[in-house]
Amino acid sequence: MGFSMSSKKFNNLMNELMKNYRIYAPKLLKNKGTFSDTDMVRYGEVSKIEEIEFNKKSLFSPKEVILPITQTLFYFTEDEVIEPKVEEKNILIFLRSCDIHATKRLDEIYLKNGGVDPYYKRLRDKVKFVLIECEKSFENCFCVSMDTNKTEDYSLFVKKQGDMVSVQCKDEELIHLFHDEEKQEVAPKFIEENNIEVKIPEGLNNSIFKSEVWKEYSSRCIACGKCNTVCGTCACFTMQDIFYKDNSNVGERRRVWASCQTEGFTSMAGGHGFRKDKGERMRFKVMHKVYDFKKRFGYHMCVGCGRCDDICPEYISFSNCVNKLNEAVKEES
Prior knowledge:
Helix content: 25-40%
Structural class: alpha+beta
Number of strands: 12
Shape: globular
Strand content: 15-25%
Mean pLDDT: 94
Radius of gyration: 22 Å
Oligomer: single chain
Number of helices: 9
Order of helices and strands: EHEEHEEEHHEEEEHHEEHHH
Largest sheet: 8 strands, mixed
Low-confidence stretches: none
């Protein structure tokens, strides 16, 4: 069901929603970019539609809302463990089709991969999606190649045009908010073509590990881990125990994002480690995104958002790498 209203009326609805929901969306952060005179788009809490950036791709994915960069799992004393209180409000996230698909990938890892992660589930169960359109394909996006350019998995669709807002509501729990609004046909439009086309190799297997393709990245990659940080589907983390200064027997355990591209990620007891070469790490990441994950779950992990290409200080392109991989597989066969 679709509705049309002014921005002012929609903001009144947002105020009503905020009684039960925390609302997150991409926001334009002035002068918060790489350089002092550049801006950044990143997810944050919003209270009115004017704060939402509809026309630019966010640097970070909305993953950090449901899988925080740093998350306290429990506090400990000498004789007890206490879990932190859970936020009572539910969560609404404004996001694009590829990011909805990315959340599905996280669900596979944290909810369906041999067990249920309770810390992830507590937040995930609170989430409803608000779809926003991509009116054009952004730089470095290849969502069409990954079949993530379209989705039906959302509660609301919101489109702002000037001072008017169009809304499609598919959620019975939210439909009552719109009973006084003007009805009209509202449906999202989805991207049908990107500037970049990615071809996943057919017949890909472990024999590609020895390919010359990976050697290029041994010298180019600087192991900063930025590609993992902005990715909507990277799910690795490490644990940190924080001991308080005033009592070394009291502290907290935190889950913190980790990166398979950085030094020390594979370090083991006795000083052993795997994939010390940066090209080997690139191989591990790429194969996980377009090979290993699909073998287990039936579809590719990468959603084609292009954020890894956007952020890389060495201009390493994931999409380029996959296409090079495709050519290498053809040459071998």
